[in-house]
Amino acid sequence: MKKLLLISLIALVLSGCGSSDTGELVGVRKTKPFYQPDPYGMQFVPMGSFTMGVGGQDITGGNRAQSKTVSVAAFFMDETEITNNEYREFVYYVRDSIARKLLADNGFSEYEITQSKKGVQYPNPIINWDEKIKWHNDDQSYQAALEDLFIPANERFYGRKEVDARKLNYHYSWIDLRAAARKQFDPNQSYDYTQGSFANRQQGATDRSVYIHNEVINVYPDTLSWIYDYAYAFNDPLTENYFWHEAYDNYPVVGVNWNQAKAFCVWRTNKLNKYIMSHGGRGTMAEFRLPTEAEWEWAARGGHQLNPYPWGGPYTRNDKGCLLANFKPLRGNYIADGGLTTLVVAHFPANDWGLYDMAGNVAEWTLSAYDPTSYNFTWDMNPDYQYNSITDDDPAMKRKVIRGGSWKDIAYFLQVDARTYEYQDTAKCYIGFRCLQPYLGRNKGDNPSKASRIK
Question: What's the pLDDT tens digit per position in 341-365?
C-alpha cells in the first residue's frame, strides 16, 4: 500500500511539471521579475502635477515663464551636481581607452580581446580593460606606441610630457527616435504598410540607419573658461588647479558644454549597463540623461507649489540670517555666503526631496532647447522642446535651457521658475550639470529608497 501511495505521489509531481497551458490568456511568463535598483547617489522624485513658471518675479518683464499646469513622470536625480572627481573618471576612461587602442595597434596584443570566454569570435577586437597600462615602462617600443597620445615635443611647456587634451575624443552613437516617429507622407507616392515601422521613414530614406547619428565629442573641460569669462580678473590659479587639484575634488565640474554633458550621460549609461550585463542582468536596465526643463523645475520645487526657491520660502536667508545658497548677494558681496566662486557640493541644506544646490553654486544644463514661447506649444504631460542642431545651424538654434543660477548670479536667477539659455557648444565657468534616470517601476511592495553618496 505504501509503495502504491509513493508511486501515486511521484505521478502527481511529474504531472505538475508538465505544460501549464490551460488555454487561458496569461501572457508570457517571466523567469524572474523585473527590479530596478536605486541608483547610487540619486534621489527619488515622485510623479506629480504642478504649475510650471509661477512663484517668482519677472523683473525683466520678458514673460519668458508663462504659467502652465503640467504633469511629469517619476524619476531619479543626482542629489548634487556632477563633481570634478566624477567627471575626471570619464576623462580617464577616454584617455585609457585611446592608450590601449594605440598599444594594440602597435603589436601589444594583450590589450585587445578577439573572442569571448566561451570561444565565440568577435567581429571586431574589443579593448581588454584587465591589462594595466604601464605609463612608466622603460621599453622604448612601448613608449613609442603611446607617443601619439601626448602633446608633440615642439609644443610642450618646460619640456614636460602631458596628455594632449585635444585627442581625448569620445565616440558614441544615438538613435533619433523623434525623427523616426514623424510621418512625412507624399500624397503622390504609394507606401507599403506591410513594412511596419519602415512606413514612417522620412522621404528619400532607404532604411532606418538614417536615424542613427554618430558623434565624436572632445571630453576635456575648458579649464581656460575662468579667464575667458572674466578677462579682467585674476583667475589664473583656478584655471591651473580647479579641475585637477584634489582640493577641488568635490566641487562641481564647470567648463563643460552641453554636448560634453550629453556624452557623459551616454558613457555613464554604458558603464552601468556593462556591469549589469556582466552580473546576469537582462537587457538594458539603465539610462542616464540630462533632465528636461519641466523635470528640473519639478525636482527643484521639492514638492512645494508656488514657491520661489527650492527651500520653499520667499527669502534667501533662514530665520538665523544665514544665506541658503551660493550666489551673489547684496551689491556684489560674493563671500557673504562663505565662498568667492564655487563651493563644495552639498554645502547648503537639501530641499525636501534630498536634492542639493538646486539654486546657486553652478547653473545647470537641461535637455531642452530654448524658445521663449515653448510653454505655449509643448504638451502638458512631460513637456519638452528639443532641437538637434548641427554645426551650420544659426546660433539661435543652438540655445539650450539652463536653470538654477550660479555663484555669480543675483537672487533672481536662483528662483525655480527663472529660465535662461546658453549655446550648446559653449562652456562657461559657472555652468555644470546633473543626471537623471527614468523610474521604470517596481514590483508590488517595493518602494524607492535613498542611496545617498553624501557622507
Answer: 999 999 999 999 999 999 999 999 9
Strand partners, 163: 150
Side-chain-side CA neighbours of 48 within 13 Å: the count stands at 20
For residues 412 and 64, the answer to whether their CB atoms sit within 8 Å is: no
Q: Report the largest interatomic distance among the alpha carbons of the chain, rounded to a whole angstrom.
A: 101
169-175 vs 363-369, strand pairing mode: unpaired
Question: Whose CA is closest to 362, among 298, 427, 304?
Answer: 427
Amino acid at 409: D
Q: Which three cell numbers stand for residue 273?
A: 549597463
Rg of the chain over all Cα atoms, to the nearest angstrom: 27
Superfamily of structural domain 48-83+221-455: paralog of FGE (formylglycine-generating enzyme) (3.90.1580.10)
pLDDT over threshold 80, residue 193: no
Residue 218: strand pairing partners: 169
Residue 342, H or E segment: none
Read off φ and ψ for residue 121, nearest 5 degrees. -80, 130
Say what the pLDDT of residue 442 is: 67
pLDDT digits (tens, 9 = 90+) for 313-343: 889 999 898 999 999 998 889 999 999 999 9
Residue 241, all three cell numbers: 588647479
What CA dihedral angle connects 92, 125, 101 and 211, to 10 degrees? -70
Q: Supply the pLDDT for residue 98.
A: 95
Q: How many angstroms from the chain centroid is the CA of residue 14?
A: 51
Residue 268 CB contacts under 8 Å (≥ 6 apart), including other chains: 90, 288, 435
Q: Considering the chain, what percentage of its residues have pLDDT values greater than 70?
A: 82
**Pairwise CA distance, residues 341 & 234, whole Å:** 12
More confident residue, 22 or 393: 393
Confidence of residue 283 (pLDDT cuts 50, 70, 90): low
**Angle at the Cα of 267 from the Cα atoms of 123 and 220, rounded to 5 degrees:** 115
Instruction: Give the start-to-end residue ranges of the domains of the chain.
Output: 48-83+221-455, 92-168, 171-218
* Integer angstrom CA distances of residue 308 from 261, 275, 396: 27, 41, 28
Interval 43-60 mean pLDDT: 81
**Distance between CA atoms of residues 346 and 82, nearest Å:** 11
Cβ atoms of residues 101 and 124 within 8 Å:
no
Q: Tell which residue, 405, 406, 397, has the closest CA to residue 369.
A: 397
Tell which residue, 55, 51, 82, 58, has the closest CA to residue 294: 51
Pairing mode of beta strands 363-369, 212-218:
unpaired
The answer to whether residues 356 and 345 touch, using CB atoms and an 8 Å cutoff, is yes
